[in-house]
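Example record

Each entry pairs one chain with its bound ligand, fe (ii) ion.
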Amino acid sequence: MTTPNVTGPTTSPRTPVSATAALGSGTASPPSDGLIGLADGVWMARAPVGFLGLRLTSSMVVFRLAGGDLLVFSPVALTPERRAAVEAQGRVAHLYAPNLFHHLWIGDWATAFPGARLHAPAGLSRKHPGLRVDRLHGADAAPEPGFAGVIDELPIEGFRLRETALLHRPSGTLAVADLVCNVGRPTHGWTATYARAMGFYDRIALSRVIRWTGFDDKKAARRSLKGILDRPFDRVIVGHGEPVLAGGRDALAGAYGWLLGR
Ligand SMILES: [Fe+2]
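Structure tokens for the complex follow.
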């Protein structure tokens, strides 16, 4: 994919800009173990992920907090190179499992960084026995003092995946896991077929499976989405696919037009 990603219907004429164009890194490129700097105090890393025979990538995000400590959101496989790249930026003080599905490697990170505070959604301990969980995130959670002034936690109520998105205030960057994806035009046949069938081929969208089965309280979810869209951000780092470097807020609104009634 060599052109900026174009979304499906949105409420704005703005065209979101994916990292494919801005960074020159297509989805066909093998993910490196390094970090990609997206803004001051914001980095991401990607790693292959296999699910239902699909060939996708999973993204993790590293945010720098006040005082220089780091928050690692949705960590991917912990390789020596990746660990060194993260440690070069600061002390890993927080590890964040954003939802009930993005936790496969966080246990390795928790072992490697025993002093880091681990944040997870309620229910993850049942899926991941033995995982050290220091704090549950979600609508009922008290604010995390370590995030003050830099990170806003934005839980999506009514979403079965129990996802919390994070807003990095200084850069206007939103990090999500499965709330929306941006996989572009996969070249792998089955992945392309599945993406088309699920409505997220070459567009910033959520899978139809998630749309149809992932919400147990649409009214609450609508309230949460509106709350997110009221925030000032333009960049969205998605859990699967290319980050949206500009126009991300409008792209997210477009992906959830069915829920927001637009
Ligand atoms: Fe995911």
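The longest helix spans residues 218-229.
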